[in-house]
Design goal:
The complex is a heterodimer of chains A (about 900) and B (about 110). Chain A has about 900 residues and is α+β, with helices and mostly antiparallel strands. Chain A has 5 domains: about 70 residues, no CATH class; about 190 residues, no CATH class; about 180 residues, no CATH class; about 170 residues; about 190 residues, no CATH class. In chain A, about 55% of the residues lie in helices and about 15% in strands. In chain A, the strands form 3 sheets. In chain A, strands 1, 2, 3, 4, 5, 6, 7, 8, 9, 10, 11 and 12 form a 12-stranded mixed sheet that branches. In chain A, strands 15, 16, 17, 18, 19, 20, 21 and 22 form an 8-stranded mixed sheet that branches. In chain A, helix 5 packs across helix 15, helix 6 packs antiparallel against helix 25 and helix 20 packs across helix 23. Chain B has about 110 residues and is α+β, with helices and mostly antiparallel strands. Chain B has one domain: Arc Repressor Mutant, subunit A, CATH 1.10.10.10. Chain B is about 55% helix and about 15% strand. Chain B is built from 4 helices and 3 strands; from the N terminus they run αβααββα. The chains are: A alpha+beta (about 900), B alpha+beta (about 110). At the A-B interface, helix 1, helix 2 and helix 4 of A face helix 2, helix 3 and strand 3 of B.
């Protein structure tokens, strides 16, 4: 028979496994029966004959296995091992749950962070040959990354020798005219070769053709895929339709691919053709564009930079008025897209990697403890005929099974982890990170998880085996000496536990401080009551609202219209809302005091009479202004407490006069209020003054409305009523004050860092506690005989507890002490992130130390308890 | 002194030779070898059945269930044509081996 039919034969047998087994059984039964008959014929009794036959026959099970091994039924053995391991895990739920949970946590964190790394750093940008693309800037003495001007761009394009393609882009916020009024959108303006430079082709319609910038041509634009789906329902007939942006009509000529995004300009809904005839583009000194260029083959970024630098210098000489101190700068495109977050991601990845490593070692140490406790079982199995090979396979299968289950669970949790991590990123930052759209369990990420599963499986299979030698299996029946390997492992384990506890301490202190900071931040006094407040930005077009009278009328009508809504308590109006950037500052001088050119800079706001009332600000002296105080009356102003204290000392500021410039009319200070937080929640107090809107009217303002009802529901009706005043008004950014505070950048920063560090701290705590348990349990298992002797000699149970807890206590004490020192250093480094909390905040440090010590002691209680419940007779019997 | 161990690889040959005379079941093969070798060679059951499996897979024997004289079901093994050929090959190899060993052991002057 040749090899093929032989293997076919094997295959056939595998399918008829059961039949094969029963056949063999029957055959062997027959053989045994014959042998029995023979023995009886020789004169033995029936029973003796049966025993003799069985003995002669030998180990029937072993025979089975050997016969099966011939046919290659090792798969059967593996299935048996898996079933056995599962049974073992079910019998020890505590061990199984702990080991799997720890592994799953480590895997989930690593896989989730790897998914971010993959999406941001590994996945290539959606352009052809993206590593050859560069972003170009003009640099000035103040900084390197400033805009280009259109005329400079044309010169650079003509003169350069290093680019095969060169275009420009600008991100803009525009007003789109829709049937409901004006809608604020984000768009980008590009030159005609932009998409060709990137190597992107529209999936529908056409790209811009060369020279489409020609001002006499119809203005055209391309839709982003997302906008096409969301606003136009994916309708293919959208090509050729027009839409109006900022009072200019554009024709849709193409749709961009789904995978396309351009991070520096995202989230752009529309990609419009550049218009070189517009105001800024005609002026060489007006800078509003960034450049994007493709390097010629063989040209390096350094030589390209040198080339454009020479061109910029030439232009400097040619146009000294506009181009003085204007130089050139460029960066590779992927540097621009991910350069900022690359270091953060890599730090997070290494942090997660370390956690995973520690988790793996913890589980391995737990496995080791278990294997020590099963030495006897293994020895008995060996004596009953199990080959060392089978025993190794047993251990290996258990280890692999743990790894596979832990990794599967971890990968599933990783999905959730990714969502949690994504929510830590502020929404506007997320919008400019289009590469995170593909975040999820894609092929790379799952592959990474599989690799981790294999690596951890190998680790868990090998580590307990490395500790065992096969002589030990036989000698295990009598617990002989502990090898030097045992001591080495204990020392390694103890050092690792101290390190883990110290790390957990540092992270917990960090999390505690950041958490406290965040709490203080949210409860900081911002001078107003943010509940039940709704806000809205309103902007009238410059052409329609060009006189003071029109602006005042607009403001008055808007306020009146809004007041008609149900549940409105009061309506305020301001040039800029609080909790923003605190800018819009102005100089001022005090009338009657000598002015020597000091820079007295304070923030200024134009507000209506009800504004401060709506906010429920606190009036400290004087009064608010009245609605009738417009330009016909003398100028008035309300200042805040910081300004009063800084410039008027202990004196009562009410009644003093100030002016913004020598030519400006004086304003009478009529009131002083407690500080309103104009900047971010953690900004330092700063002087601010509030002038009546009716004395300084403008066409753009923000509404802030206090209502008795739920303000989230109020927002849509608020928008509608403002539209009723004039449908041509641009209305945007409806949010409640509480949402605004919640989404503010500094709030996000504090919240995200508290959660991130807290997450890592929680995992580190768990790892430290489990690590400690592993080490103590291992040491107890090594000392069972010693404990038995002690108890037999009369030691009370209490002393056994003390024995074990002393060992644990020493480790905990060292770990916590080291951690305390390290966390104070760490907190010092983190000073800038803390708000209202000192780096050496004693309650936090003490609280964390106690939390860590008590959880660690609790973990060591279990092995102590087990040690104390050892019956001395059992322990000594193994001698 | 214990019973001498069977030389490795010779068990297959002995089984094939035994079956060359007549089809037999497993027990019968073991008894036959024991008898023919005058009790020197005892085939361990632990080696017999795996060997029979091997021979089955190679296609040198074939097996079928039959009834014995005592009306018990037993599996009888028969030598196939390839098995007969293989027996010839193994026997000649074995004899060459024996002759070579004999030459080494013989007294040389």
């Amino acid at each position: 028979m040749n090899a093929i039919s032989r293997s076919l034969g094997k295959l056939a047998l595998i399918f008829r496994r059961k039949r094969f087994r029963s056949d063999l059984d029957e055959e062997m039964a027959f053989h045994r029966a014959q042998a029995e008959k023979d023995f009886m014929a020789r004169g033995m009794s029936e029973e003796e004959a049966r025993y003799a036959a069985k003995r002669q026959f030998g180990n029937a099970t072993l025979l089975h296995e050997l016969s099966q091994a011939q046919v290659g039924f090792s798969a059967e053995a593996v299935m048996q091992d898996i079933r056995f391991s599962l049974r073992q895990l079910r019998k020890n739920p505590g061990f199984a749950v702990t080991a799997i949970l720890i592994l799953a946590l480590g895997i989930a964190a690593s896989v989730a962070i790897y998914a971010f790394v993959d999406a941001a750093l590994i996945k290539p940008l959606p352009y052809s040959d993206p590593s050859r693309l560069a972003v170009l800037y003009e640099s000035i003495p103040l900084g390197a990354k400033f805009h280009l001007s259109y005329l400079d761009y044309l010169d650079w394009k003509r003169e350069n020798k290093v680019f095969s393609a060169f275009d420009v882009y600008e991100q803009q916020s525009l007003n789109e005219k829709t049937s409901e009024g004006l809608r604020q959108v984000v768009g980008a303006r590009v030159t005609s070769g932009f998409f060709r430079t990137l190597g992107v082709k529209p999936i529908l319609g056409r790209d811009f053709y060369d020279g489409e910038e020609n001002p006499s041509a119809q203005r055209t634009l391309l839709l982003s895929y997302g906008t096409w789906q969301n606003s136009y329902g994916g309708d293919r007939h959208v090509l050729g339709k027009t839409l109006e942006l900022d009072d200019v009509s554009y024709t849709i000529v193409g749709i961009l691919p789904r995978a396309f995004s351009f991070a520096p300009a995202e989230p752009a809904e529309f990609w419009m053709i550049e218009n070189p005839a517009k105001g800024c583009e005609k002026n060489r000194g007006c800078h509003n564009l960034y450049g994007i260029a493709r390097l010629k083959p063989g040209v390096s970024f350094a030589s390209a930079l040198a080339d454009i630098k020479t061109i910029a210098q030439k232009l400097e000489r040619q146009y000294p008025n506009s181009n003085r101190d204007q130089w050139a700068f460029l960066l590779p495109l992927d540097e621009v897209v991910v350069g900022d977050i690359r270091p953060i991601l890599l730090v997070l990845l290494s942090g997660a990697g370390m956690l995973l490593l520690i988790a793996g070692i913890n589980v391995a140490s737990l496995l080791l403890v278990r294997s020590e406790n099963r030495k006897r079982e293994m020895a008995v199995r060996g004596a009953l005929g199990a080959s060392p090979r089978r025993l190794i396979l047993q251990y290996a299968t258990e280890g692999m099974l743990l790894a596979v289950i832990g990794c599967a669970l971890g990968t599933v949790c990783a999905q959730e982890c990714m969502h949690i991590l994504a929510r830590l990123i502020p929404k506007d930052m997320l919008a400019s990170m289009p590469y995170l759209n593909g975040l999820g369990l894609n092929a790379h990420v799952v592959g990474f998880a599989v690799v981790l599963a294999l690596l951890s499986g190998v680790l868990f299979a090998v580590l307990p085996l490395a500790r065992m030698r096969f002589k030990d299996i036989r000698e295990g029946l009598s617990e002989g000496g502990r090898g030097s390997a045992g001591v080495a492992w204990r020392r390694f384990g103890s050092n690792l536990v101290v390190l883990e506890l110290a790390t957990a301490m540092v992270l917990l202190v960090g999390a505690g401080l950041l958490g406290k900071s965040f709490y203080r931040l949210l409860h900081a006094d911002i001078g107003l009551e943010p509940d039940h407040l709704a806000t809205l930005q309103v902007s009238g077009s410059e052409s329609n609202y060009n006189t003071d009278a029109k602006n005042i009328a607009l403001a008055r009508e808007t306020v009146q219209q809004v007041r008609k809504l149900p549940g409105i308590v009061s309506v305020g109006l301001t040039s800029k809302l609080p909790i923003e950037d605190g800018d819009e500052t102005s100089d001022f001088r005090i009338v009657g005091r000598p002015y020597h050119g000091e820079q007295n800079e304070v923030a200024f706001r134009e507000v209506n009479a009800d504004y401060l009332v709506t906010l429920k600000a606190r009036l400290l002296a004087g009064r608010y202004f009245r609605d009738d105080e417009d330009k016909s009356k003398p100028g008035v102003v309300v200042i805040n407490q910081t300004m009063a204290r800084q410039y008027f000392g202990g004196m009562n500021a009410v009644g003093m006069q100030i002016r913004t410039g020598d030519k400006d009319p004086p304003m009478l200070i009529v009131g002083v209020i407690s500080d309103l937080q104009e900047g971010q929640l953690d900004a330092a107090p700063r002087g601010a003054m509030y002038m009546p809107f009716n004395q300084h009217p403008m066409s753009q303002f923000a509404l802030i409305v206090r209502s008795t009802q739920r303000v989230e529901d109020l927002l849509p009706s608020l928008e509608k009523s403002v539209h009723q005043v004039d449908p041509g008004l641009a209305i945007f950014d409806p949010q409640t004050m509480e949402q605004k505070i919640h989404d503010a950048p500094s709030t996000y920063l504090h919240r995200s860092s508290a959660w991130l560090v807290g997450g890592f701290a929680g995992i580190a705590l768990l790892l430290g506690v489990v690590g400690l348990y592993g080490v103590i349990a291992y040491s107890v298992s090594q000392r069972t005989r010693e404990i038995g002797v002690r108890m037999a000699l009369g030691a009370a149970r209490g002393s056994v507890y003390r024995l074990v807890l002393r060992e644990a206590g020493a480790l905990i004490a060292i770990g916590v002490a080291a951690g305390l020192a390290a966390s104070i250093v760490g907190a010092m480094l983190m000073r800038k992130l803390l708000f209202g909390v000192a780096a050496w905040d004693v309650p936090t440090l003490a609280g964390v130390a106690m939390l860590l010590a008590s959880s660690a002691l609790l973990a060591s209680y279990l092995p102590a308890h087990r040690a104390a419940s050892v019956s001395p007779a059992d322990a000594l019997r193994t001698e | 002194m214990g019973k001498p161990d069977l030389l490795p690889g010779t068990l297959d040959m002995l089984i094939l030779k035994t079956l060359a005379r007549a089809p037999l079941h497993g027990y019968g093969i073991a008894q036959s070898i024991k008898r023919m070798s005058e009790d020197v060679l005892t085939v361990e059951e632990g080696s017999l059945y795996p060997a029979l499996q091997r021979l089955l897979l190679q296609g040198w024997v074939k097996a079928e269930w039959k009834m014995t004289e005592t009306n018990r079901r037993a599996r009888f093994y028969t030598l196939t044509a390839e098995g007969r050929k293989q027996l010839g090959v193994e026997m000649s190899e074995f004899q060459q081996m024996i002759a070579a060993i004999g030459r080494v052991l013989a007294e040389q002057q």
